[in-house]
Every structure is written in C-alpha cells, then in structure tokens.
Design brief:
Elements lengths: L3 E6 L6 H11 L2 E6 L10 E4 L19 H11 L4 E4 L1 H8 L6 E3 L7 E9 L15 E8 L3 E3 L2 H9 L3 E5 L11 E5 L5 E4 L19 H12 L2
Parallel strand pairs: 1-2, 1-3, 3-4, 4-11
Antiparallel strand pairs: 5-8, 6-7, 6-9, 9-10, 10-11
Helix pairs in contact: 1-5
C-alpha cells in the first residue's frame, strides 16, 4: 500500500499536473485537490504547486491563503501533516504563517527562468531525507516575486536552528537574503522553496536531470515507513 500525495489547484496554478506526475513517478498515489473543497480526501501529504494563483493580486499567495482548502491544510500541518510549497506554494505558506518571512519582487525587477544550482543545507526534513547535507543539485527556477526576506532575528533563528533547507549556488537569482532558496518549519514537516523540483524528475524534461525527484521519494519513504 502506497502513500497518497495531494496537489492543490487554485485559479492560476500552473504546475499542478507536473507535481502530480512527480508524485506518481516516485511511486505515490497522486490526488488532485480543489481550492474550494475543505476535504483533503484522506491524503497523507500535500503539495502547493507553482503558478500565479489569483493572478498574484494584492501579493503573491495573499488571496489563496484564504481559500477553503487552506483552512484544513493549516490545521493538519500544525498537527504534523507534511506540506511542500513550491514557488507560489512557498509564497502561500508564508502568507499562511506556516513558514516565517515573506516573498518580494526580484531585486532586478524582472521575471527569471533558468536552471539553478542549489546546495542542500538540511537533509533531515520530511521532504529532503533522500538528499545529503552539502549535496549540490540543479533544478529549474522561474519567478517574479522570489526574493526571500525576513528580519535579522528571524534569519538568525533559521540559521541557528538549521531551518535553512536550500541555498542558491553560483548566483543569487533574485536577491534573497543570505542566498536562501528554501526553508523548513521547526518540526520539519513543512518545507517551502522557490525552485521547481517537479520539473527535474525525468531526463527528457527540465534540466535533463532527476535532481528534483528526491523530494517525492523522501516523503514517500517517510510515509510508507511511518
């Protein structure tokens, strides 16, 4: 019996089908979730996929944070359910206060789309256990509001507690403070990052590598072995 991984679709979500496919390739049962439905259909974990939910009006993720499905996700995440936020999903997680900080417009004020090198800083979360600390991976990055910011106290806490999950390597593509590409909550069940691991799960697409598949195999192993 395998795990069920739900992927939420909001109006404007772009990468839900990619995330569903990544979950399936990892061996999980992918489950589509609709933003207006509070029922999570008995999934074991949730992915908030990338895109431009609600057209990024007000702020990226600001409206999606109040969708009915988020009420259940926030409650379940606080109870320990694994949740992964990718790009717009990361923005939604910060707006929902499941992760600290905020996402602002890229410092160069342009949309960016490129293959991006990352260093794994924390390989002990529910979504990163198939990686090794210090491992370098490459996955696609595409965003307009990808600059991670937080006050110095929060940044220091993230560093001290090992909650920086990923850092940008070679180049900081959006001005994120301390080169932060992704973070985790204290419990390690909620992870958010701006790059797109779901686009790097097959050799024929994305970077031509499978560096992103580890997110989905990590959570599958955790859930199956729980």
């Amino acid at each position: 019996m395998t795990a069920r991984i739900g992927v939420v679709t909001f109006p404007g979500t772009l990468d839900d089908q990619d995330a569903l496919r990544a979950a399936r390739l990892a061996g999980a049962e992918p489950v589509s979730l609709w933003h207006r439905d509070k029922d999570l259909k008995q999934v074991d974990a949730v992915v908030l996929a990338g895109g431009f939910s609600y057209g990024d009006y007000l702020r990226a993720g600001a409206i999606s944070r109040f969708s009915p499905v988020m009420e259940t996700i926030i409650e379940q995440a606080k109870a320990g359910m694994p949740v992964l936020g990718i790009c717009n999903g990361f923005q939604i997680l910060t707006e929902a206060h499941l992760l600290p900080g905020a996402m602002l417009r890229n410092n160069h004020l342009h949309f960016i789309c490129r293959d991006q090198k990352l260093r794994v800083e924390n390989a002990e979360t529910a979504w990163t256990s198939d990686y090794s600390a210090g491992q370098e991976i490459e996955v696609p990055l595409k965003n307009m509001d990808g600059r991670y910011v937080a006050d110095e106290r929060t940044l220091d806490e993230l560093e001290a507690e090992g909650r920086v999950a990923f850092r940008y390597l070679d180049v900081n593509p959006n001005g994120s403070l301390r080169d932060i590409a992704g973070i985790t909550n204290a419990a390690g069940n909620v992870v958010g990052l701006m790059p797109h691991p779901e686009h790097a799960v097959e050799p024929l697409i994305g970077t031509g590598k499978t560096d992103g598949l580890g997110f989905f195999t990590s959570i599958l192993k955790k859930l199956v072995n729980a």
